[in-house]
């Protein structure tokens, strides 16, 4: 009898222990286990792909955007950044966005002109004489219409325009001072019909290679030169196999921030508001800091490289403008009279270009 009682007590203890340790844990009494699961279920991830280094206006701005969003949503929205084309190149990021493999990209406006030709307006030579004029275009009527166009035609959400800087030109053949100096040279450019026509008008050829293939193509001599902002030239060492730099400020390289539309529409309103607010703050930040970064990296280039730097004089610029003027007529039909009128109004205002 005592043996039975002992066995019974033993079994009962086993059942109680199993209930406490096993069933209760699975039913949610283990706070730690379920909290983590809960967080993972609730967390929204925005994957951002871009092609430049972290030490650039865009690289730093996207980092700032991440910090602002994660702080204001208390980590409920996480921003994952893939710089240097590490996830998608400039060629594949557009489709990746449309397929929601990434939720945000920040391509140069020139690259978007492949899908919405009006974005090529920013590439018109000497369209902007100052940073103020670029801001008027990005944050005024032109910017508003172009954000609407990409949404309507391509079904991606146009969020904001971000800033980098005016483009300059390097090559390893000769100083580029007059349009004739471009004759028979071969340049890497971003894709874009206006850019191509601009170089052809000066007697040069272009290849629109991916950004992260530029260095190696300069190295092997497939191309003689390239055009970019100082921060892109500096951070990717695009001066490495080049002898000459012309500070031409001939057109502005800026970005359009794009998001996957379905992803955006599916976000709770409170998160949309926090993301909007982070975007406004970041846009303001990159507008101011991109100027500083291009200026300071220009000083570094002058100090630390053997580049022969020529700053285009006003008289020389006039000759470039005359050679390239026909592009304005040629593209009036593509961009439409309204956008061109807005651009001419902005171009007539005053301001400081830099360098
Ligand atoms: C380029 O391809 O030269 C630029 O678009 C890179 C960038 O994103 O600034």
Concise structural overview:
By secondary structure, the protein is an alpha/beta fold. It has helices spanning 2-29, 31-42, 57-72, 93-98, 109-112, 131-139, 141-154, 193-201, 214-219, 230-235, 261-265, 269-304, 314-324, 326-335, 337-347, and strands at residues 44-49, 77-82, 104-105, 156-166, 168-171, 186-188, 205-207, 225-228, 244-247, 252-260, 308-311.
Give an overview of the whole structure.
The chain has 355 residues and is α/β, with parallel strands linked by helices. It has a single domain, classed as 3-Layer(aba) Sandwich (D-Maltodextrin-Binding Protein, domain 2). It is built from 15 helices and eleven strands. Helix 3 (57-72) links the parallel strand 1 (44-49) and strand 2. Helix 3 (57-72) runs antiparallel to helix 12, helix 6 (131-139) packs across helix 7 and helix 6 runs antiparallel to helix 15 (337-347). It is globular and about 60 Å long. The structure holds (2S)-2-hydroxybutanedioic acid.
Summary keywords:
355 residues; alpha/beta; D-Maltodextrin-Binding Protein, domain 2; 6-stranded mixed sheet; 5-stranded mixed sheet; 11 strands; globular; binds (2S)-2-hydroxybutanedioic acid
The portion of residues assigned to helices is 40-55%
Sheet having the most strands = 6 strands, mixed
Could you give the distance between the termini? Answer: 101 Å
> Rg from C-alpha positions?
27 Å
- Report the CATH architecture: 3-Layer(aba) Sandwich
Count of discrete domains:
1
User: Which class best fits the helix and strand makeup?
Assistant: alpha/beta
Low-pLDDT runs: 14-33
Strand content: 15-25%
Number of strands: 11
User: What is the spatial order of strands in the main beta sheet?
Assistant: 7-6-8-5-9-11
Under CATH at level 1, the class stands as Alpha Beta
